[in-house]
Amino acid sequence: MDSASLILRCRQRVGISQRELATRCRTSAAAISLYETGQRIPRVDTLARIIAATGSTMTTHAEPPPDIDMTTNGNDLVSVLELVNNLPRSSEQELSAPVFADLASR
Fold first, then answer.
1. What's the CA gap between 38 and 1, in Å, rounded?
2. Residues 33, 18: contact at Cβ < 8 Å?
3. 29 CA to centre of own chain
4. How far is CA 52 from CA 6, 33, 70, 101, in A?
5. Is the pTM of the predicted complex or chain greater than 0.70?
6. Are 31 and 22 in contact (CB under 8 A)?
7. C-alpha neighbours within 13 Å on the C-beta side of residue 69
8. Domains contained in the chain, CATH given
9. What is d(CA 2, CA 10) in angstroms, rounded to the nearest whole number?
């Protein structure tokens, strides 16, 4: 769930207005509106403060990205490039799609 949906859901669950939520978490109603519509993304500490103002709690979970085996990825890329290199070559140099042909003549 994104932060906009989370803020909106928590606020609506307790039945308060954006203005009331803003007062509770010491920010402006305009900021709450921007957060709820996704036009602005709050920092983690701001999001936690807004969620707490609705009586809810927020927990976070973080883990490192998985290890990437560059050898396997590199070998896969080489295989793909070899396949592309073995595709039949087209001797046609002119663009045959009307839209592209028009663009090429400009």
1. 12
2. yes
3. 24
4. 12, 17, 43, 59
5. no
6. yes
7. 4
8. 3-53 (1.10.260.40)
9. 12
The C-alpha atoms of residue 40 and residue 50 are separated, in whole angstroms, by 14
Which amino acid, one-letter code, is at 5?
Answer: S
Tokens of 71: 């050898």
Question: 6-16, pLDDT tens digit by residue?
Answer: 999 999 999 99
Q: Which of 65, 68, 64, 57 is nearest to 6 (CA)?
A: 57
Tokens found for residue 92: 């046609």
On whether the CB atoms of residues 76 and 70 are closer than 8 A, the answer is no
pLDDT digit string (tens) for 47-60? 999 999 999 998 88
**DSSP track, 42-91:** --HHHHHHHHHHTT--------PPPP--HHHHHHHHHHHHHHHHTSPPP-
Q: Which secondary structure element, helix H or strand E, spans residue 97, and what is its range? A: none
